[in-house]
């Protein structure tokens, strides 16, 4: 995984085995508790692996003092568990590589804009729609 | 390199002990900052102090959790249930204070020192650890800017200058223990690359930065004390009564070591 210009996870999701793809899609329904944007589109989900019914998810936080951490971890666990092929879930919070704004997907940028937020340094969308 | 698989048990203990001290600093300072919430000099300051406190607790969590995972403990136990003599925070951050000038003085002294120490970890070779230190470091510049602005703002009046001078005279000597980690233990961590630099070697840089920034204040004695032997060494578990009182306040019946976290967890599980 590149740490400088992270690719949109979409390609990875589409080429993932069915169970993993189902977990990605389930997590995509989980929004950041403070923003109406999917955790996947914020680029916070680093890794999903499913083996023998056990899902492992690595995720990060936008900053270390994030007060919503337990909510996020709990929501991701529940989402992954909702997938039929998954019996057991292990969610890890990781800090490497560091998260940055480049990880927000095109869809995530659009959702943030609709919420009235611009992504710093985003020349294509300097002004949110309802600014 | 990984702390669990690549380091022998002694070294792992040394690393965990070092990180506990870093976490204790953040935890205790986060707590002291939180005591200001709703009492700050301005509404804006209430907000800022609350955010800074949250940052410090976040950083404490980063390191406590790492230690907990690697020594088989628990975040809440490490943060809440350890008595003063088990804590390794610098005595600088435990000061009970009611003058905002103290907050500015402590924050300034602490953040300047922490910047150096976090870099020593961030530039070390245990990847998950250096990532955490880098994360904490990246969130600190606004704290330093905050301290910097208040240092300038408070000297605008005679009273402000007087109170700030008094606060710095108290804070600087207490910071003498900040880099005073046990040499043998940190030497091991430096030899193996867990730390990029020995804390003791960072001290002159800190003294220089602080002396330069505070040159307009009459602080010769305090700066000498900051560069000398600490009166109490928090890194060796020596603390003021102020820390005992703070920790007692965390526990409803004053029973440090008996926080009812297990009961909450049982309730969650139901």
Write the layout of secondary structure elements.
The complex is a heterodimer of chains A (131) and B (270).
Chain A: H1 10-15, H2 18-28, E1 45-51, E2 54-59, H3 69-81, E3 88-93, H4 106-114
Parallel strand pairs in A: 2-3
Antiparallel strand pairs in A: 1-2
Helix pairs in contact in A: 2-3
Chain B: H1 3-6, H2 9-34, H3 43-71, H4 75-80, H5 91-94, H6 100-122, H7 127-138, H8 141-154, H9 158-174, H10 183-191, H11 199-213, H12 220-227, H13 241-249, H14 261-269
Helix pairs in contact in B: 2-3, 2-10, 3-7, 6-7, 6-8, 6-9, 6-11, 9-12
Descriptive account of the structure:
- The complex is a heterodimer of chains A (131) and B (270).
- Chain A is of the alpha+beta class.
- Chain A has one domain (9-105): Fe-S cluster assembly (FSCA) (GMP Synthetase, Chain A, domain 3, 2-Layer Sandwich), CATH 3.30.300.130.
- Helices cover 30% and strands 15% of the residues of chain A.
- Chain A has helices spanning 10-15, 18-28, 69-81, 106-114; strands at residues 45-51, 54-59, 88-93.
- Chain A has a three-stranded mixed β-sheet with strand order 1-2-3, covered by helices on one side.
- By secondary structure, chain B is mostly helical.
- In chain B, helix 6 runs antiparallel to helix 8, helix 6 packs across helix 9 (158-174) and helix 9 (158-174) packs parallel to helix 12 (220-227).
- The longest helix of chain B has 29 residues, at 43-71.
- The A-B interface holds A 63-67, 94-98 and B 54-59, 61-62, 127-128, 130-132, 134-136, 138-139.
What characteristics describe this protein?
heterodimer; A: 131 residues; alpha+beta; GMP Synthetase, Chain A, domain 3; 3-stranded mixed beta sheet; 3 strands; B: 270 residues; mainly alpha; 14 helices; 69% helix
